[in-house]
From TrEMBL:
Sorted UniProt keywords: Hydrolase, Metal-binding, Nuclease, Ribosome biogenesis, Toxin-antitoxin system
GO biological process terms held by the UniProt record: maturation of SSU-rRNA
Protein family per UniProt: Belongs to the NOB1 family.
Matching InterPro entries: NOB1, PIN-like_dom_sf, Ribonuclease_PIN
A GO molecular-function annotation: hydrolase activity
One Pfam family, short name: PIN_6
Protein name: Endoribonuclease Nob1
Cofactor: Mn(2+)
General function of this protein: Toxic component of a type II toxin-antitoxin (TA) system. Processes pre-16S-rRNA at its 3' end (the D-site) to yield the mature 3' end.
Cellular component, GO annotation: cytoplasm; preribosome, small subunit precursor
Cleaved signal peptide residues: none
Ribonuclease PIN domain segment(s): 3-82
Gene source species: Geoglobus ahangari
Length: 149
């Protein structure tokens, strides 16, 4: 089974057997060519289950990818986890979390990730680590920084 991201539909690369996605991905498909393509492919659409969403969020918090993943990304990962499916995406944050969840992934057109990363938020003013977008200590904005594993 393959869980597919919207990129697969936009690029008309839905060549996998037993494909599944979530309603949020379908909602992202607005242009008429992609909607037509969507109507002719064999694609099952299911909601992501809350228990799997929570597991994905836990892992994404540990890797720091929680700051980079959209709700749709998290639900795609949850659907892949639920079915122990291969997730098809070019999104590096999705791939990073998939790797931590021991899920396989395939890229669409870009090379997939080769290393796992961890991300932290760091204040650009005082350099402190934080989980907020604005530092509680000095009031400066924060930015994401990749840390070595």
């Amino acid at each position: 089974m393959f869980v597919i991201d919207s990129t697969v539909i936009f690029l008309k690369k839905a060549i996998f057997d037993k494909m599944i996605t979530i309603p949020e991905v379908i909602e992202e498909i607005k242009d008429s060519n992609s909607r037509l393509y969507l109507s002719i492919i064999n694609l099952k659409v299911e909601e992501a289950k809350e228990e799997f969403i929570e597991r994905v969020k836990e892992v994404a918090k540990r890797t720091g990818d929680i700051y980079r993943l959209s709700d749709t990304d998290i639900k795609l990962l949850a659907k892949a986890l639920e079915h122990n499916a291969v997730i098809v995406t070019d999104d590096y944050s999705i791939q990073n979390v998939a790797k931590k969840l021991n899920l396989k992934f395939e890229n669409v057109i870009q090379r997939g990730i080769e290393k796992e990363f961890k991300w932290i938020r760091v204040c650009i003013g005082c350099g402190r680590r934080t989980e907020k977008e604005i530092c509680e200590v000095c009031g400066s904005p924060t930015k994401l920084r990749r840390v070595k594993k």
